[in-house]
Specification:
Elements lengths: L9 H23 L5 H15 L7 H11 L1 H32 L2 H30 L4 H14 L1 H20 L4 H22 L11 H14 L3
Helix pairs in contact: 1-2, 1-8, 2-3, 2-4, 2-5, 2-8, 4-5, 5-6, 7-8
C-alpha cells in the first residue's frame, strides 16, 4: 500500500500528466480564440503531449509557447488549408444531401458518397498534420502529403483516433462548458497512437546491435531529433 503514495509511482505520474494536459487545454483555448492561431496552438499542444508519451516533456508554460512561436507560420498555414478544404467539401456534401433528398436517384447516392468520402479524408488528414508538424521539421506541402499517406496507410489506427475524438465530441455536447478539457484529453490519448505510427517510420540502422531497452530509447530520441 505504501507504494501507492510514492510520488514516483506510475499512477501518480499519469495523474500528473493529466493535470498538465488540463492546464495545457486552457492555454490552447486562450491562444485559439483569435481563430487564425488555432493551428499553431494545436501544434504546440501536440508538441507537449508527444513528448509526454516517452516522458520527455518540459514545463508546460515554456514548452507550449516555445513551440507556438516556432511553428506559428506552418501551423497557421496548415490550419487555413484545412479550414478551406473542410468548408469546400462540407458545402459540397450539404449540396449533395439536398440533391439526394430532392431526387433520391442512384446518381445522387453516388455523388453523396463521393463528397462524404472526400470530407472524411480531409478530416483524417488534418488529424495527422499537427502531431506530424510537432515532431518532424517538414515544409507545409510535405506535411500535408505525408499526413494523407499516414492517415490512409494506417487506417485501423486512424479509425481509433477518430473514435477518440468522436467520444470527446459527444462528451463536449453534453458538457459544452468544459469542451476544451475533452479536446485536451483526446489530444493526449491520441498522441500514443500517433507516436506508434511515427515510430514505424523511423528505421534503425542495420549494423546497430542494441538491447530492446536501448533500442527503444534510441528510436525515441531519433524520432524527436527530426524536430529542430
Amino acid at each position: 500500500m505504501s507504494g501507492i503514495f510514492n510520488p514516483e509511482n506510475k499512477f501518480w505520474d499519469f495523474i500528473g500528466k493529466l493535470a498538465d494536459v488540463t492546464f495545457m487545454s486552457m492555454l490552447w483555448l486562450i491562444t485559439s480564440l483569435p481563430i487564425v492561431t488555432a493551428g499553431a496552438a494545436t501544434t504546440a499542444f501536440y508538441d507537449f503531449t508527444m513528448h509526454q508519451v516517452n516522458d520527455r516533456e518540459g514545463t508546460v508554460w515554456r514548452s507550449y509557447f516555445r513551440s507556438f512561436r516556432k511553428n506559428f507560420r506552418r501551423g497557421t498555414a496548415i490550419w487555413l488549408i484545412e479550414l478551406a478544404a473542410v468548408l469546400f467539401f462540407g458545402f459540397d456534401f450539404w449540396a449533395a444531401w439536398k440533391y439526394f433528398v430532392a431526387t433520391g436517384g442512384v446518381w445522387s447516392v453516388v455523388v453523396l458518397g463521393m463528397t462524404a468520402c472526400a470530407l472524411i479524408l480531409v478530416l483524417l488528414t488534418g488529424f495527422y498534420a499537427y502531431p506530424l508538424l510537432a515532431t518532424f521539421d517538414f515544409p507545409v506541402k510535405k506535411l500535408v502529403t505525408n499526413s494523407f499517406i499516414m492517415a490512409v496507410g494506417n487506417l485501423p489506427t486512424t479509425l481509433v483516433i477518430l473514435l477518440i475524438f468522436g467520444i470527446a465530441a459527444v462528451a463536449s455536447y453534453y458538457l459544452s462548458g468544459i469542451f476544451f478539457i475533452f479536446f485536451g484529453l483526446a489530444v493526449f490519448f491520441s498522441s500514443y497512437f500517433f507516436f506508434a505510427v511515427f515510430w514505424r517510420y523511423t528505421e534503425k540502422d542495420e549494423d546497430e546491435e542494441e538491447s530492446e531497452e536501448d533500442l527503444a530509447s534510441a528510436r525515441a530520441k531519433k524520432l524527436f531529433s527530426k524536430k529542430k
